[in-house]
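Protocol step 4 of 6: structure prediction from sequence.
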Amino acid sequence: MSALDTVIRKLEGELDEKKSAYEAILGHVDKENREPNESEKSTLGALTNRMKEINESLEGYDATDKVIGQFSTRAKQLDLAISTRRAAPDGVEYRSAGAYALDAYKSALGDRTASERLEVFHRAAAHQKTTDNLGVIPDPIVGGVVNFIDAARPMVQAVGPQPLPGATWHRPKVSQNTLVDVQGAAGAAADEKLELVSQKMTITRLTANAVTYGGYVNVSRQNIDFSNGQIMDIIIQDLAAQYAIQTEAALGAELDASTAVAVGYGASPTAATVRAALWSAVGDIYAVTKGMGRLVLAVAPDRLETFGPLFPPVWGVTEDGEGLRAGNYGSGQVGGISGIQTVMSAGLASGKAFLFSTSAIEVFEQRVGTLQVTEPSVMGVQVAYAGYFTPLTIDDGGIIELTAT
């Protein structure tokens, strides 16, 4: 009996003992018609855990025993095959695997006769390759479809889409406020019984129109029925991702169309020059929005090389916020500078960076989603994905571009 067999038999004996002890406790409890007490519960739990451990060990040893058995069987089959193998006429016959190994050893030492026997033996043997039996070689597909596409919309999410009310709509905006001042300030001197100042409120309106974004694909019925993956789901997901990319880019173009004066952080920026530019832009934005909305710093992917190294995510290095994290390299929030939420968006053109208030720009959206129609005459299914999306600038002054000047 091998050492492995001895270990297995020992574990099996212990398992029987634990099982008997477990059943004895349950039998005693059942006989007295009661629930196990705390001591008995503890013992039962310990017995259960040990039986689980033994079972896991036995499963592992059983797998090892099977591997050893398969290896032994294969070795015997190989020895038998070599000993009974017949080569071509005038060929070489090896009586055993050991005889073949001995010739291989002698050949390595320079024995010419052994080398010639090996050459004849291998020349007579037919070599089977995978290219000879392609009919039984499987063609596996592993995992889902790899599709490198970033469908995040960090700027759209930061602003927050609003329901799109119709094809055309208007956004009211106060262009002139009322006025309050000291009594008589409009005259030569302030005094009672003098006329108060007066100024009417003027409310204008901004006009917006729904813009349609969408795309479609015509898929054959055969492609749907015979594809290994769910091709329709893959296509629809890709269409939805493309819709997200285009709408994020539309918001980026709207930011870029701002006519506000840009603020420069320098051709050779430092943390200090970037902070100065940000605080200057914050002041400009406040002058227009009076603190309404939230501030968001949006940067194009290639601007990370400028801002990122200047603000590492280590408090105390810049004393300027949580810093920017390279690990968050996908579109979305990458950290913060001076308490300002900072996002990287592929929807911005190369070299662009904007600080804006969410009260200075709005987005309106209504997703149509998926549309499908069957074409029986050509055995096809036409699938589309669409939606209405419109960014609307409320005030250019609340959008400041940061430039390398």
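Step 5 (inspection) to follow. Confidence is low (pLDDT under 50) at residues 84-89.
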